[in-house]
Amino acid sequence: MIAMFRNDWARTWQNKARLFVMLGLILVSIFLAVFVSSKGNFSTKIGVIGGPKQEVASDTVKIVPLSKEPNKSALALGTYDAIVDMRQETPVISTFKGAEYKKELMNYLKDPQSIKAIQKNEGGTGSKIIGYMLMFLLMFSVTNMLLFSEDKEKHIMERIITTPISFIKLFANYALFAWLVLFIPNLLIIAGISFLGLTDIGLSLMNYTILIGVITLFATAFAVCNASFFQVADTASMLGSMIMMITTLLSGSFFSLDNGNKFFNDLIHWLPQKQFLELVKNIEAGQSYGDNFQLLFYLIGISAVLMIIAIAKTRKEYVRN
């Protein structure tokens, strides 16, 4: 197994530029999360078009007067949590945060003293750091399966299977190596930032170790399952990265997305990334891992299912009884 690891590392190091680019993106995402966390005391930013000047009853809300309606992208990117058009008799609220948020905001516009109702539960610095690095980490996991995909594409897998190495040992090598290459650098980045005192990382290193370990387990399971269905490495990487990017954005990694559609929101709720982000927020709020057993079980369970599918698919394709 050690000899196989050395061989895999030598092949990975030949393409080290890809490794450094992805780790650089993760590092940038961490500092971006810290910057966003510290840019002001308000937690809700509302753009108001027309109408009288709004009273602000707390520093957790920022009212921004607007002369015209901004693009919808301003809501999607989190520039504003809501846009309120006061030019009509009844205020018209535009937001991606759902009917409940609209209702609370309407109450605030009627009575600014009801500020507590619309304060957002976005978590602290730790939640933002993990949220911002999540998409890059997951996309990195897909490109991290390049060795497995190349061995299939170049028909090296057929030759390896004929050697005395067992199929399970071979598959475990691919999966474990991919997990380690994903887990160790990300944890070292967080630990380095913490030890150098560059910024507050929000959570303890032990919590980061557990949380990164859990999400990299899911990421590796998805990546190997995705790669098992394709013979061409580029096809597997492109489709897997696209799936990870879209589902991570929908899960609220960068900003909360709630269009008020119950069916749509229920689907998003069951995304592994969404469940993971809920776990991070709960841990940062002081809950124990035992209190979040169901979330952990779901994440580990879906990782196990993906891994079993990948093993069964690959074994059926290459192992002849």
From TrEMBL:
<dbReference type="GO" id="GO:0016020">
    <property type="term" value="C:membrane"/>
</dbReference>
<keyword id="KW-0812">Transmembrane</keyword>
<protein>
    <recommendedName>
        <fullName>ABC-2 type transporter transmembrane domain-containing protein</fullName>
    </recommendedName>
</protein>
<feature type="transmembrane region" description="Helical">
    <location>
        <begin position="20"/>
        <end position="38"/>
    </location>
</feature>
<dbReference type="InterPro" id="IPR013525">
    <property type="entry name" value="ABC2_TM"/>
</dbReference>
<dbReference type="Pfam" id="PF12698">
    <property type="entry name" value="ABC2_membrane_3"/>
</dbReference>
<dbReference type="GO" id="GO:0140359">
    <property type="term" value="F:ABC-type transporter activity"/>
</dbReference>
<keyword id="KW-1133">Transmembrane helix</keyword>
<feature type="transmembrane region" description="Helical">
    <location>
        <begin position="129"/>
        <end position="149"/>
    </location>
</feature>
<feature type="transmembrane region" description="Helical">
    <location>
        <begin position="295"/>
        <end position="312"/>
    </location>
</feature>
<feature type="transmembrane region" description="Helical">
    <location>
        <begin position="236"/>
        <end position="257"/>
    </location>
</feature>
<feature type="domain" description="ABC-2 type transporter transmembrane">
    <location>
        <begin position="58"/>
        <end position="311"/>
    </location>
</feature>
<feature type="transmembrane region" description="Helical">
    <location>
        <begin position="208"/>
        <end position="229"/>
    </location>
</feature>
<dbReference type="InterPro" id="IPR051328">
    <property type="entry name" value="T7SS_ABC-Transporter"/>
</dbReference>
<keyword id="KW-0472">Membrane</keyword>
<feature type="transmembrane region" description="Helical">
    <location>
        <begin position="170"/>
        <end position="196"/>
    </location>
</feature>
